[in-house]
UniProtKB/TrEMBL annotation:
GO CC field: cytosol
EC number: 2.7.1.49, 2.7.4.7
Name of the protein: Hydroxymethylpyrimidine/phosphomethylpyrimidine kinase
The organism of origin for this protein: Desulfotruncus arcticus DSM 17038
Pfam families for the chain: Phos_pyr_kin
Catalytic activity from the UniProt record: 4-amino-2-methyl-5-(phosphooxymethyl)pyrimidine + ATP = 4-amino-2-methyl-5-(diphosphooxymethyl)pyrimidine + ADP; 4-amino-5-hydroxymethyl-2-methylpyrimidine + ATP = 4-amino-2-methyl-5-(phosphooxymethyl)pyrimidine + ADP + H(+)
InterPro entries, per the entry: HMP/HMP-P_kinase_dom (IPR004399), PM/HMP-P_kinase-1 (IPR013749), Ribokinase-like (IPR029056)
Presence of the UniProt keyword Transferase in the record: yes
Annotated keywords: ATP-binding, Kinase, Nucleotide-binding, Thiamine biosynthesis, Transferase
């Protein structure tokens, strides 16, 4: 059995965070495990409260897993504070974690800060050098590189800059581009664009979480990075195409088990 760990925040409405990650791992035929960093009171209309867990319980969750189970890949999502980032960094280094995918979650689509602004420096310093793959959206790439990004050319330049900060492979996601949803991968000094038409739906809650978890699941299976990103792009395209209205706001992506059954990927 392929085993994948998510270190992230809980989303009470199940569309993003830990819940989206575990659904993705299952849909892709892997066994999912979780370390919770924070609990959010969240629904399809917004995030109403956030409670961080303390460093001890985060460290102990990570230790409990690594001392007992061989972990094939790790996805990191909402990390909330600099103190939590330091704890995660120390614990993953100590346990020699492999295939780490960092989704540098900063702000929810509804506009709530999921990373304290003063923790951005720690995310860059501690987590980027651990990342086999980092998956910033346009806003996150702008914050990390301190530049404005609106074009594919600017996405490529940002990917190179983020690689120089220590992340081995960089995917700048184009979900918020005008026009098609094109993601830019910078890997081993080469660029590759993963394009898809934009699915015309308002229901995109959890797209970033799902995409990064799908990359982690494929890395865990032994896929090279480029293939893992290609598969994740295919999976998220289908998950958005099958998204559905839930509640009164932005509905979630749908984790369709047929994908794995039909493709065995
Ligand atoms: N409407 C859409 N149609 C097709 N793909 C999309 C759409 N919105 C986002 N994506 C894809 O979903 C993934 C997550 O991107 P994005 O929404 O930018 O992340 P985030 O949730 O971190 O803001 C990317 O692969 C992006 O290209
Ligand atoms: C607990 C938690 N983690 C991450 C997010 C952000 O998820 P994302 O996939 O970027 O999608 P949106 O929520 O922004 O639609 C979250 N909301 N909650």
């Amino acid at each position: 059995m392929i085993k994948v760990l998510t270190i992230a925040g809980s989303d009470s409405c199940g569309g993003a965070g830990i819940q989206a990650d575990l659904k993705t791992f299952s849909a892709l035929g892997t066994y999912g495990m979780s370390v919770i960093t924070a609990v959010t009171a969240q629904n399809t209309r917004g995030v109403f409260n956030v409670r961080e867990l303390d460093q001890e319980i985060i460290r102990d969750q990570i230790s409990a897993i690594f001392e007992d189970i061989q972990v094939d890949a790790v996805k990191i999502g909402m990390v909330s504070s600099a103190a939590i980032i330091e704890t995660i960094g120390e614990s993953l280094l100590k346990n020699k974690a492999q295939n780490i995918v960092v989704d540098p979650v900063m702000v929810s689509k509804s506009g709530c800060a999921l990373l304290q602004p003063e923790a951005r420096e720690a995310l860059i310093r501690v987590l980027l050098p651990l990342a086999e793959v980092v998956t910033p959206n346009l806003f996150e790439a702008e914050v990390i590189t301190e530049t404005k990004i609106a074009t594919l050319d600017e996405m490529e330049k940002a990917a190179v800059a983020i690689n120089k900060l220590g992340a081995k492979n960089v995917v700048v996601k184009g979900g918020h581009l005008k026009g098609d949803a094109i993601d830019v991968l910078y890997s081993e000094k080469a660029f590759r664009h993963f394009g898809s038409g934009r699915v015309a739906t308002p229901h995109t809650h959890g797209t970033g979480c799902t995409f990064s978890s799908a990359i982690a699941a494929s890395l865990a299976k032994g896929c090279p990075v480029e293939e893992a990103v290609a598969r994740a792009k295919e999976y998220i395209g289908g998950a958005i195409a099958h998204s559905f209205p839930l509640g009164r706001g932005v509905g979630p992506t749908h984790h369709f088990y047929q994908y794995y059954r039909d493709t065995n990927r």
